[in-house]
Amino acid sequence: MAASSEVMPASSESIVLRLFEVDAVKFGDFTLKSGITSPVYFDLRVMISFPQLMTDVANLLWDKISASKFISLCGVPYTALPIATLMSASHNIPMLIRRKEAKGYGTKKLIEGIFRTGDVCLIVEDVVSSGSSVLDTAEALKSVGVLVTDAVVLLDREQGGRQKLQQEGITLHSVFTMTDILTILKGAGKLDSQTVDKVACYIEHNRFQPDQTVCSLKPKVYDYEERAKLCTNSVTRRLLEIMGEKRSNLALSADVTTSQELLQLVDKVGPHVCIVKTHIDILEDFTQETVTKLSQLAARHNFLIFEDRKFADIGNTVLHQFGGGMYNISSWAHIINAHGVPGPGVVHGLREVGASKGCGCLLIAEMSSAGNLATGDYTTATVSMAEANKDFVIGFISVNNLTSDPTFIHMTPGVQLTAGQDSLGQQYLTPSEVITNRGSDIIIVGRGIYEAKDPVEAAKQFQLAGYDAFVARLTEFMTS
Ligand code: 5BU
C-alpha cells in the first residue's frame, strides 16, 4: 500500500479518532454488499448524530479542493448529502441533488437544482472503494449536460477507485487513505499490529482492476501452501498443507456398510485423497477397533477424517452426541459438520468438546440435493454464524463459494465426472464446475469411487480432474 505523501495537520488525526470512537470506523469481519468479507467497515452515516464532527469533516473536505474549479457541488446520495449541504452553505456554492430514481410524476427530474449545459460540478463522497458510486452520479450529471472533473472524498480505501475514476477523466481528492487511518489508529494505540496487517493484506488482495467493469472484483486465488500460512486454525492449516503435498482436493465419501470394506477401500484409495469422510452409523459392525485402524490409515496415507454426522440439536445434546456415546466421534474425527438451524448453541456445544482436541467444524450452508431448503437468507445467516465462530468453524459444506475469506474452506458433495441426478434427488456437478467455475475447494465423491469397477483408478481420475480444475482457476486469476 502506498504511504500518504502529505503530513497531516493534528486536527485530521483527532477527526480519525473521533470517527473511531463513534463507531464510524469498525474492525472485525463484515460481509459487504458484494459478498466479500472485509476486516474493516466504514459507516459514516452515524455522523449525522454528531453535528460538530460532521462540520469538521465538511471543513476538511473543503480544504482539500479549494484549488479545483467548479461552480456547483453534488453529494453522492445519501451519506454525503448532509456533508455537501454544509460545504455549500458555508462557502456559498450552489448545490445540486441527484435523485436515485427519476420521479415518476411531475417534472421527472434526475438532477434537482439550477444548472446550465457545460457547468462544472464537484462531486462529494464519503468513501470510495471501486469508484462506482461517484461514476453513477457523474453519469447522471453528464446526462443533463453538467461536467465533472473532480471528486472529493473523506476516505479512499485504496482499492483501485482512484485509478478507475482517473480513467474516466475524474481526479479524486481524498482527505484520508486507508493507510492514513491505520497509521493514525495504530499510533494512538487503538489497533494492534495484527489487525493492521490483516487490513493491509485484505486491501492488497482485493483491488478492483481499473480496466474491468466495477462489479468484477475477484478475490485472490491462493495456492494451497500460501493459503495454509494465512490460517491460524490448526485443522485448516494441516488440511491445506496436505492438499499441497498430495496435489489433491479430493475427499472420499466412504459410505460402505462393513468395517472390512471401509478399511480396505480407505487403504487403497488413501494415497489419492486429502480427506476420508465417514457416516460411522451406517456400519453394521462398528467397534472401537474400526476407528483405531482408520486413524492408523489416516497417519499412514496422510489424510484427515471427516465424520459427516450433521449435528443439528441444542448445544447440550450435541455436546453428548459428539463427546461420548458408542461412537465417541470426538476421539477420532478431525472434522465434523453441523446444521445452523438450532442457532449458535450448536456450535458452542460442539466447540466445548472439540476445540481442545484440535477438531474443526464445517457448517452446512448449502446442500446438493434437489429441493433442499438451505438457500438464500438461510445460507447468508449460516455464513455469519461461521464468521462469528471462526476459532472453531473452519468452513462450509456448500455448492458455491460463499466468502472470499481464504481461511474458510468450501467442500462440495454431489460430484461425478458427468453432471446428472440419482433416483433420490442427489444432484451431481463435475469437478471443473465445482472447483473452477464455482470456486469451491474440495470435491466430495462417494459412489463415483466406491461403486466404480476399479476404485483406485476412479480415485486417480477424480484427483487429477479436481487438481486440474484448481490449477485452471489459479491460472485464470493470475492472467486476469
Ligand atoms: P455420493 O455417493 O457421491 O452421492 O455421496 C455424497 C456424500 O455426501 C454422501 O455421504 C452424502 O451423505 C453426503 N452429502 C451430500 O451428498 N449432500 C449434501 O448436501 C451433504 C452431504 Br451436507
Short structural summary:
The chain is α/β, with parallel strands linked by helices. It contains 17 helices and 18 strands.
Task: Write structural notes for this entry.
- The chain is α/β, with parallel strands linked by helices and 480 residues long.
- It is built from 17 helices and 18 strands.
- It has helices at residues 10-21, 51-65, 80-91, 132-142, 161-167, 178-187, 193-205, 224-230, 234-246, 259-269, 288-301, 315-323, 345-354, 376-387, 431-437, 447-450, 455-479, and strands at residues 25-31, 37-42, 72-75, 95-98, 111-112, 121-128, 150-156, 171-177, 250-253, 275-278, 304-311, 335-338, 360-364, 393-397, 409-412, 420-421, 427-428, 442-445.
- Strand 7 (150-156), helix 5 and strand 8 form a beta-alpha-beta unit.
- The longest helix is centred in the last third of the chain and has 25 residues, at 455-479.
- The chain starts with 9 loop residues before the first helix and ends with a helix.
- The relative contact order is 0.08.
- Residues 1-7 and 211-217 have low confidence and may be disordered.
- It binds 5-bromo-uridine-5'-monophosphate.
- Residues 253, 255, 279, 308, 364, 367-369, 397, 413-414, 426, 444-448 line the site of 5-bromo-uridine-5'-monophosphate.
- 5-bromo-uridine-5'-monophosphate binds next to strand 18 and helix 16.
